[in-house]
Amino acid sequence: MTFGEKVIAYCKSIPKPEKLPEGVEVLYPFNTPKVMGLVRQFCERFYAGRQPRTFLIGINPGRFGGGSTGIPFTDPLRLESELGITNDMDKKPELSSRFVYEMIGALGGPEEFYRQFYITSVSPVGFTKDGKNLNYYDIKELQETLEPYMISELKKQIELGANPVAYSLGMGKNIAYLNKINKEHGLFEAIEPLPHPRWIMQYRLKRKDEFIRLYEEKLLRTEYI
User: How far is Cα 124 from Cα 27, in angstroms, rounded to an integer?
Assistant: First the structure.
């Protein structure tokens, strides 16, 4: 199987977490033919070949990005304009997706980037509360409830074909949590931190080009691509 065929099979099998804290809802797009059709087009186009990828691990999908398209850090707008995959979804932009695709452009474009890298998140599904995005670590009970689920899903994805060094998209709570579970479960040889795309766009927008260069320097230096 190609890497893309493995990813498609994985997306079809992602379970929906249950028994979550009161008021927490799951963003689960994988049960709709429309989304799975988009995932299939993406994987067939950009995940051909059988070589392993270097993992970039975010927090969890958001409402306007992977939580709607099924493709991490990819909003419907970028799905069409950057990846050439037409869709009839509401073209609401996501800040993280904007940064990610500018960064991907700096690294040679989608074909070159996805040949080497696989973007995912600690949780493969996203969460909302009161209509707003929720991070897995925002509520202690949520994180504790999700831990077995998130570790299991990361292990499944590593089996698709992962290089030994991964990157955390997030230099605070996300890398701290990834280092914790990595120490306990030996998921990767090492996990290196990178600033989260949304943090850059929300709080350091004037330095965006500087952070794109940081990504470029770090990712292109890895000896595993």
Answer: 10
The per-residue pLDDT for 220 is 87
pLDDT the model gives residue 23: 97
Domains and their CATH numbers in the chain = 3-221 (3.40.470.10)
Which ranges in 2-139 belong to alpha helices (H)? Answer: 3-13, 33-46, 66-69, 76-81, 95-106, 110-116
Residue with tokens 């069409």: 80
Which SS3 state, helix, strand or coil, does residue 166 take? Answer: strand
* Total Cβ atoms within 10 A of residue 74: 26
Structure tokens at 73: 């850090």
Q: How far apart are CA 130 and CA 25, in angstroms?
A: 9
List of long-range contacts for 151-156, beta carbons under 8 Å, 24+ apart = 151/181, 151/185, 151/187, 153/14, 153/123, 153/124, 154/57, 154/120, 154/122, 154/181, 154/187, 155/185, 155/187, 156/10, 156/13
* Token code pair at residue 106: 């700096």
Model pTM score: 0.95
Do strands 190-194 and 165-169 pair parallel, antiparallel, or not at all (unpaired)? parallel
Look up residue 162 and give its DSSP letter: B
